[in-house]
Structures are given as C-alpha cells and as structure tokens.
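Many introductory courses stop at the sequence. We go one step further.
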Amino acid sequence: MAAMYSPVQIQEATVPGPRQFEQVEFRDLQPLWPLCIPYFGCMCCPCIVTCNQTLVLEAEEAVLTSSNICWSSVERRPYAQIGEVIEMKMCLCCHAVKSNLNESGKQAVPICPGWGCEAAKVAQLKDALQERKVGRGNIAQIQQAELTVAYVKDINAKMDAVMAHLNLGTPPLANNAEVMEREIGDFRITEAGAAIVTGRQVAGPVTHAKV
C-alpha cells in the first residue's frame, strides 16, 4: 500500500518594506507676526495679510505652497532632503519649525504660523516631519538595506544547513563570496553616508563607478 505524504508548507521569508504614511495637510501656516515689526509691517502689509501657506506631506515628498498678491511658489522636497527638523521657541512665546523647507536664498526660513503662539500646531508639524524623515528618508533606506543583508545571511545559513544535511559540496561561487566577506569584513553605512568597515580591509584605493 502506497504511503501517503502530506505536502510541506514552506513559509517564504519576506523583507518588510519601508513604513507607509497617510497624506497629511497643514493649512494656514502663513506668518502674521511680521505685522508687529515697525515700518516693515506697514510697508509689507498687503503681502502679509494676503499670504497663504500650505504644507502637504505626501507619500514620498513634502510640498510647501506659498502665495500672496506679490508672488507665489511651490516647493517639492523628498523626505531624504528634509535635513534636521528643529522645533524653535523665540521671544518666549513664538513657536516655529526649522528644516530645509521654505528656503529663501542660502538659508531656510522657519515655519512660524499665525502670530507665533500656535504651539500645538507647530509640535504636530514637527512630529509629522520627523516621522516621515525617519520612515521614508535616508535613515529608512539604510535600515532597509541592513535588514535585507540580515535576511540574506539568515537564508544562507539555512541553505548551508540543508546542504550539510544532504552531504552536498559548496558551489564555487559561494566559496568566492565567503572569501570576499572575510577579506572585507563587516561593511555598514552610517546615516551621513560614510562607510564603516571592521575587520581586514582590502588593499588599494576605493573607487566609485558611475552608472
């Protein structure tokens, strides 16, 4: 009588992707506090009171739209280029968020909505930008690459165990990969993009190939 075997269910190892975020819109971010500046507030009053500033945090980038009777602009910036997100407190009561958004010349102008006293909105804006910077920016890309390497090493270890159980030899390409790993050592990339190599380093200069 033929033996009956139940099929073996193999669970595939999947690498989780980057964190996904819903689209968020922050309206009425235009500053009104410049009206308190002597002379400047009077001269620029039409531009200040008609200003409208909106920030939309999309899936992959932040979109800052600014407009008034004098000019209008739309700035799109990926989260990897947001830079450092800082919550600022000026003149004891003015709250603002500073990042690489809202650039004017060589520096970015902090986003300080209203008369500067909207601390809750500023804190919410800062948290939303920081979450997307970490979840979708350079930090997320580095973490995703390190996680992928960890999964590959885990799969290789399982394959080695299976081949050892079946008394199979190691393929030549696998031997070459092991030699390269021993020569190079543990290779990691910091948040700033610098390479960290521990172990034995490969002799000769490091070159970057253009694709």
